[in-house]
Design goal:
Chain A: This is Cullin family profile domain-containing protein. The complex is a heterodimer of chains A (737) and B (249). With 737 residues, chain A is mostly helical. Chain A has 28 helices and 9 strands. The N and C termini of chain A lie far apart (109 Å). Chain B has a two-stranded antiparallel ribbon. The chains are: A mainly alpha (737), B mainly alpha (249). The interface between A and B is medium-sized, with 14 and 15 residues.
């Protein structure tokens, strides 16, 4: 409606005030819906509108703005505040909440009335909006007066809820919204007037709980309570706290419940980490991981406890074997490797399941194993024990005691175990020696797939150089077979009437064996050797053969009176028996002169033929040992139920372990020399400390070098003019080109 | 000739007595170094000595007196005669200093060049003059730098020809001799240790480093760096000292 007349300010105000009172009245009545009569609304709106667009000096915009301010101020101060201040405790909150809701509605309608100001006047003058003005008034007149009390009540209610009571969450949510809004665009009021106190109270609340729980509860029980508490606090945030509080609240709870008591908790005697591991409590361990994972560095004490426990278990196994060995039983040492592998598998499962494959726990497992995997048992290093284990493993495979998958799994485990052993070169030496024996003496039992699988896996982990000799050995056997076929094919007749099979070994790959070319072979065998030599000469160029009779096998038919029996013998044994083809009786001296065997070897052979299980020869005197005056006679009465007998001969008592250690030591010296020269060649000048530490690092893949040995090698290289000391500083070395 | 003060005249006399230089050269050297005797010696010895024919003839005569009848070298017998002429014992350390001046390749032998070179370096051409030089040569051992050179020279000189290392007994003998001139409190322990534990020849590096050790590490081993680049043998020696409670750890 267009009005021609000017509205006077006071006039307009009167109209306004009537509307405001009406509004207040409606609010007080709290009917379900607050509605202003549309006609009245329109009138108010238009009045204000007109007052604003009137030409100067009747443009009352500024005065209207101020009026608005006064109205809200008045309402806040005179209506809202007194009502709230009268109440206490929860009633305080209820009243505050109620009044806040009213205020919001009040302001909303008022803003509608004064809307025209919002469109032009306020932006033009860059004044605070109507809503801002209202909020400021509420804050100054109401909030600041009651916030302390309100805060106290809220926190008390929260504590009640923590103890299990039900509280009015909507109420709290609404009240806390006041705190948030009072920040006027920032979260400051909420933070400083409420959150700060909440966090303080939370801290002391949980501190009390923690000290009680840690005394009364077992570790799993405590963890369950902690998990519960964390869950509840997070729920609290979603229900009525501001979202920004969550991270701070969680941090406090974690800190109080988990971090500060971590040591006490994990080390609880009957229920702590080690007990949980001992009793296989995977649920509790998973919970432990879940709880400590989000805390920075929280998992470290857990990983530590894990490592210590595993190391203890491992050490116990070692000690068991050591004690048994001290008492004379070596069985424990033999099964030790298997037990260590089982231990590894068991705890790897924990790492993967409970500890979710976390690197910290992989590391802990590795470190634990490195601790005990390098201890000695009965003089054998772990490297030797593992090599023995592999030996028995592969010898068993001929009997099909393990399925293919089980075998592969065990091979995998052995290779993994090798990773923990620092003297890897010792393992490779022992393994090679035993592999040689398996290939040469048990080759009908050898399972080529398994052997190759092990070598391939070792190669993958340690590199080609580590396994090159082993591979060479296996290939040699293959080549020898084929070569043998060719040899057989080339023969028109059996040399000496004997079926000869020769295996040619490449010296570089195989362990060194003493040759025995001085042995006087019987005529038939000499023919064999010559036949093969000439064939070999036609097929190869300038290669020299060294014959190892000590490692050969012979099948001999013994024509005994009862029945002929096939004897499976070593070549030495066969050669001795062949002497009896020409005569019935021989003295020890005669035998040794005719054969040219060493005294030690001959004694062993004669023992096996005359004093052991099978008496092929009779000995005078019939004592249990051989003396140089004994006389031997072919035992024509010998018989057995079987048609073929293997007459075993005990191996010579060489201290294999000592030889291996010596060989490895020598190799290490070369390796260190090469390493030092390599480093100095590239760096030219280097101080002593750095040279040593780089050397250790580069060699650590194969073995742990002894610092003293490195020093000695450095001095040796100085004497050999590869290095020299710097003239000015004798702790620095220069490379001599 | 201008008048010399009494002290300067004394210095001149001293200088001539020690170096065997002519008065003219002596005066020149002393003047050039502002009448400081030590500096004057340096000046004098850094000048190339003019070889007069007379000098050469005398050296030739001297050489022939000592040289071996069958080879063109002075061998053990000749050296023995030389020592008695000089009135010193053959084991006297001054023979080492003399050998050092000659740059002799090996003990108990002087080649002709070595003999000539040494005597010329010392500026002498007669036994008398050489004898006068003996105290000077002894004094050289007190000089830190020269002792260092003589010590290192001694290794090559004392070892067998064609060997790379020095036999233990010889080394011990040399050490006793050398460290009599320059005190090292641990020298006896060192020699005991070697005889008990080592029984092998001494490498050049070990020999050289031992002097470093004696010079820089104090007898209580307080500044010994176990992580340092000391040769292996010296590390063992330190452990030996701790074991025998010669030094507290």
């Amino acid at each position: 409606m267009y009005r021609a007349t000017i509205i006077d300010f006071e006039q307009g105000c009167k109209c306004l005030e009537a509307g405001v009172s009406e509004l207040k009245r409606i609010l007080e009545e709290e009917t379900s819906e607050t509605r202003i009569d549309p006609k009245q609304y329109l009138e108010l709106y238009t009045t204000i509108y007109n007052m604003c667009i009137q030409k100067h000096p009747h443009d009352h915009s500024q005065r209207l703005y101020n009026k608005y301010h006064d109205i809200v101020e008045h309402y806040a101060k005179k209506t809202v505040l007194p009502c709230v201040q009268q109440k206490h405790d929860e009633y305080l909150l209820r009243e505050l909440s109620r009044r806040w809701d009213h205020y919001k509605v009040f302001v909303k309608w008022l803003s509608h009335f004064f809307n025209y100001l919002e469109r032009f006047f306020i932006p033009q003058r860059n004044y605070p909006s109507l809503l801002e003005v209202a909020m400021k008034s509420f804050r100054n007149r109401v909030y600041l007066e009651v916030q302390v009390n309100a805060k106290d009540v809220v926190i008390a209610l929260i504590d009640k809820e923590r103890e299990g009571a039900q509280i009015d969450m909507e109420l709290l949510k609404n009240v806390l919204d006041i705190f948030v809004q009072s920040g006027m665009g920032t979260i400051e009021r909420y933070k400083e007037d409420f959150e700060m106190f909440l966090l303080e109270e939370t801290e002391s609340y949980y501190a009390r709980k923690a000290s009680r729980w840690i005394q009364e509860c077992s570790c799993p029980e405590y963890m369950i309570k902690s998990e519960e508490s964390l869950k509840k606090e997070k729920e609290r945030v979603t229900h009525y706290l501001h979202s920004s509080t969550e991270s701070k609240l969680v941090e406090i709870v974690q800190d109080i419940l988990l971090v500060s008591v971590a040591k006490h908790l994990l080390e609880k005697e009957h229920s702590g980490c080690s007990a949980l591991l001992r009793d296989d409590k995977t649920d509790d361990l998973s919970r432990m991981y879940r709880l400590y994972h989000p805390i920075p560095k929280g998992l470290e004490p857990v990983a530590d406890a894990f490592r210590i426990y595993v190391a203890r278990e491992g050490n116990a196994l070692i000690k068991q074997a050591q004690d048994a060995a001290a008492n004379g039983s070596l069985v424990e040492a033999q099964v030790l490797v298997g037990k260590i592998i089982d231990l590894h598998e068991k705890y790897m499962v924990y790492v993967m399941d409970c500890f979710k494959n976390h690197t910290l726990f992989h590391k802990a497992l590795k470190e634990a194993f490195e601790v005990f995997c390098n201890k000695k048992v009965a003089g054998s290093s772990s490297a030797e024990l593992v090599a023995n284990f592999c030996d028995s493993l592969f010898k068993k495979s001929g009997n099909d005691k393990l399925s293919d998958e089980a075998m592969e799994a065990t091979i995998d485990n052995v290779v993994k175990l090798l990773d923990y052993i620092s003297d890897k070169d010792i393992f490779s030496e022992f393994y090679r020696k035993k592999l040689a024996r398996r290939l040469l003496f048990d080759h009908h039992k050898v399972n080529k797939e398994h052997e190759t699988s092990m070598i391939t896996k070792l190669k993958r982990q340690q590199g080609g150089q580590y396994t090159s000799k082993m591979e060479g050995m296996v290939t040699d056997m293959q080549l020898a077979k084929e070569f043998q076929k060719g040899f057989k094919g080339s023969l028109t007749a059996k040399p000496g009437g004997i079926d000869l099979a020769v295996t040619v070994l490449n010296t570089g790959f195989w362990p060194s064996y003493k040759t025995s070319t001085d042995l006087n072979l019987p005529r038939e065998m000499v023919e064999c050797v010559e036949a093969f030599k000439s064939y070999y000469g036609t097929k190869t160029n300038q290669r020299k053969l060294r014959w190892l009779y000590s490692h050969g096998t012979c099948h001999v038919i013994g024509s005994f009176d009862p029945k002929p029996i096939e004897l499976v013998l070593s070549t030495y044994q066969a050669v001795v028996l062949c002497l009896f083809n020409n005569t019935e009786r021989l003295t020890y001296q005669e035998i040794i002169e005719q054969l040219n065997l060493s005294h030690e070897d001959l004694v062993r052979v004669l023992l096996s033929l005359s004093c052991a299980k099978y008496r092929i020869l009779n000995k005078e005197p019939a004592s249990k040992s051989i003396s140089t005056t004994d006389v031997f006679e072919f035992n024509s009465k010998f018989t057995s139920t079987m048609r073929r007998i293997k007459v075993s001969i005990p191996p010579p008592p060489i201290d294999e372990r000592k030889k291996v250690v010596e060989d490895v030591d020598q190799d290490r010296r070369y390796a260190i020399d090469a390493c030092i020269v390599r480093i100095m060649k590239s760096r030219k000048v280097l101080p002593h400390q750095q040279l040593v530490s780089q050397c250790v690092e580069q060699l650590s893949r194969m073995f742990k070098p002894d610092i003293k040995m490195i020093k000695k090698r450095i001095e040796d290289l100085i004497t050999r003019d590869y290095l020299k000391r710097d003239a000015k500083n004798h702790h620095i070395f220069n490379y001599v080109a | 000739m201008h008048k010399l003060s009494r002290s300067n005249r004394d210095k001149l006399q001293q200088f001539v007595a020690i170096t065997g230089a002519s008065d003219k050269n002596a005066l020149q050297a002393l003047k050039a170094s502002d009448w400081q005797l030590e500096a004057a010696f340096d000046v004098f010895y850094s000048q190339p000595q003019p070889r007069s024919n007379g000098d050469m003839r005398r050296l030739e005569e001297l050489y022939n007196r000592y040289k071996d009848p069958y080879s063109d070298m002075i061998l053990a017998e000749g050296i023995s005669v030389l020592c008695s002429d000089l009135q010193v014992e053959p084991q006297d350390i001054v023979t080492l200093v003399l050998s050092w001046h000659m740059n002799a390749a090996t003990a108990c032998e002087f080649s002709k060049e070595e003999f000539f070179g040494g005597l010329q370096a010392l500026g002498v051409d007669s036994i008398g003059k050489l004898q006068e030089k003996l105290s000077f040569m002894r004094s050289e051992l007190k000089d830190e730098q020269k002792f260092h050179e003589i010590y290192n020279f001694a290794f090559g000189w004392a070892k067998e020809k064609g060997q790379k290392s020095l036999a233990l007994d010889t080394a011990i003998g040399m050490w006793q001799l050398l460290f009599a001139e320059r005190e090292w409190p641990l020298v006896n322990h060192w020699c005991d240790f070697l005889q008990d534990h080592h029984n092998k020849a001494i490498s050049k590096d070990t020999w050289a480093q031992l002097l470093e050790f004696a010079r820089t590490v104090d007898p209580a081993l307080s500044n010994y760096d176990a992580e340092g680049a000391w040769p292996y043998l010296i590390d063992e020696f330190v452990e030996y000292l701790y074991d025998k409670s010669v030094v507290e750890k």
